[in-house]
Amino acid sequence: MEQDILPMHLLRIKENGEGITTEFKEAKQNLPSSLFESVCAMLNRNGGHIFLGIKDNGEIVGVYKDYIKNMKRDFVNQCNNPEKLFPTAHLAIKEYVYEGKHILYIYVYESSDVHKTANKIFDRNEDGDFDITSNTTLISNLYIRKSSTYIENKIYPFATIDDLRLDLIEKARIMAANRTANHPWSKMKDLDMLRSASLYEKNLQTGEEGFNLACLLLFGKDDVIASALSYYRTDAILKIKDLERYDDRDDIRTNLMESYERLTDFIKKHLNDKFYIEGDQRINVRDVIARELCANLLIHREYSNPYPAKLIITKEHIYTENANKPRIIGFIDLDNYSPYPKNPKIANFFKEIGLADELGSGIRKIVKYTSIYSGAIPEFKDDEIFKVKIPLIKAKEISIVEISNEKLRDLILDFISMGAGRTRQEINEYIYPILNDKKEIMNNRVRTTLTYLRKKQYIENLGSDTKSKWSSK
After folding, report:
1. What pTM was computed for the model?
2. Domain at 234-391: CATH architecture
């Protein structure tokens, strides 16, 4: 079986060395004894990346290939063992090869829970993992930060199992079992399953116990969700002929599992199929885009904000909008993008039932399959309202002489706003002819563009300082 090569974005993380969100551990035959201290600390802090088979100084020593299968199995088992990690966490461990050596990689999300390993609480800073079990101040601060950051943690102590859709709980159990053989949920009763997924919990500060908002959003009956979040709504709109109003609309005010189905069905209803052969598999590109786009819209929404989530289909684009708590402002640079979950419990649940993959993979898949579907590049803008723009058709070629200087500058800046997603061919065919136009090169905004592209190492000057000639590196 051919092994996956270490992806470029993980190589960049590795090359930056250890830090608060990156940990190297030497591991040749077994999982390191300190592994779950790092897992626990990252869950409790900002999440992060753990590489097994790499020394502290960054030297790759590798993991012995014959032991990898057992190490991966042991890791998954311990993640689901409450005596080892509590609450349990659903984490994936992946195998990669770099320079002929095998590496195991774990992405740890930032959890909305406070986790323990071997009954000890660990937190993380730049210097590593620290046992804070005996420090009541640090533990209290940790609980306060988690409760204030994640509304999905809010407990509804008077909600009962009768407020939930038991048919959807059973459906989720079957989906998880179909995705993973012998999944623990397949043998659990409903309440035990919800506890395992951190959807029923106890707040150790207040003593409140019950179903949390994440559980109500996933499985609650419609009237129960409306009682918990009166403003909760997701709008799916088609605007092609009637631009003032709409041609079709689905006003969605139900649980997240059925919301996901209605959103993906809306896209399938109004967009054409496009199939693509990947390896030996025939893939429906439209359906992949729909899956990732709709999961992203629901999982990463800030539910404390009354702004309704929106999915809008026009003749040339799909747009989505959802309330957000941004860490950056502006267009996402995929070369330097560190994803973080807005609702870790909901994200984990979607992952367990197969409606989402590892954090960050959704955006990369949308970029990949949009380029196949339309030959264009999507945009992701992180702000108080997170916006995604998916082109459905490739932008028309525009002659330089046909447009004004102002429009030309806007086109350049728009084109590079997702510079990390541009291919060399696109840069060669579109940007360089514009940059080599003498009239435009004198403009300050274009000079800013040149500086950006040069720093990104997309271009180099083959001419002189007074007579520039820009080309790809």
Report:
1. 0.62
2. 2-Layer Sandwich (3.30)
